[in-house]
Amino acid sequence: PELAHPQIVAGSHAILKADAIRFVATFRQFLDTASFPNLLLQLAQFLLMKDHTVIQTYAAHAIDKVLQMKEQQQQVGHAPPPVVTTQAFAPCATTILPTVCQQLAHTAVPNEYLMKCLMTMMRVHPSTIIPYIGQVMHSLGDVLIFQMKNPSNPVYNHCLWECISRGIKMAPENVTDIEVLLWEKLMFILR
């Protein structure tokens, strides 16, 4: 409830926001799973805080960890389904995905937690991401331009290439558009 409180969102100190978000990431196993879609939307508003990198990073980390949660395994030999189902995540994706893509494309310093968040969304809920694959690949193309000049963070770069390859795998019918978007950048890297 603290994340939705207007005083926390608008007027409080950054440390209170960061603590509330960190609490969610740490104790997510003990929270009511029915509240996760609403919780994801509340966390998405903190991704927009460009001036507070710690809050933005904690929000991306919390979203990533919530999306990675799995149900208790009940059948042997089958992977357990995610706690946040595709149907529950679909309304959140319209807010979270554009926000993450925007922040990745316009952040001067690579934030590996934002990139991990995007990678997890693409891995756990691919059918929800497919309608936005053009926007995602365009954002990743912008990130690639910046990263090819100074590839300073290996985890960030690994997640970037994982997202690009996953995007191609998710939408093979758009491979020509993706190739046009990324070809010059890839040729620069290979030279």
This entry's quaternary arrangement is single chain
Mean pLDDT, rounded to whole units?
Answer: 87
Portion in strands: under 5%
Order of helices and strands: HHHHHHHHHH
Give a short account of the largest sheet.
none
The dominant shape is globular
DSSP, total strands: 0
Count, helices: 10
The computed structural class is mainly alpha
Give the fraction of residues assigned to helices: over 70%
Low-confidence stretches: none
What does the radius of gyration come to?
17 Å
Instruction: Report how far apart the termini are.
Output: 52 Å
Describe what is shown at a glance:
This protein has 191 residues and is mainly α. It is built from ten helices and no strands.
SSE layout and pairings?
Blueprint: H1 6-11, H2 14-26, H3 36-46, H4 53-68, H5 86-106, H6 112-124, H7 126-129, H8 133-149, H9 154-170, H10 175-190
Helix pairs in contact: 2-4, 3-4, 3-5, 4-6, 5-6, 5-8, 6-9, 8-9, 8-10
Folded structure, characterized:
It is a single chain. This protein has 191 residues and is mostly helical. The protein is 70% helix and 0% strand. It contains 10 helices and no strands.
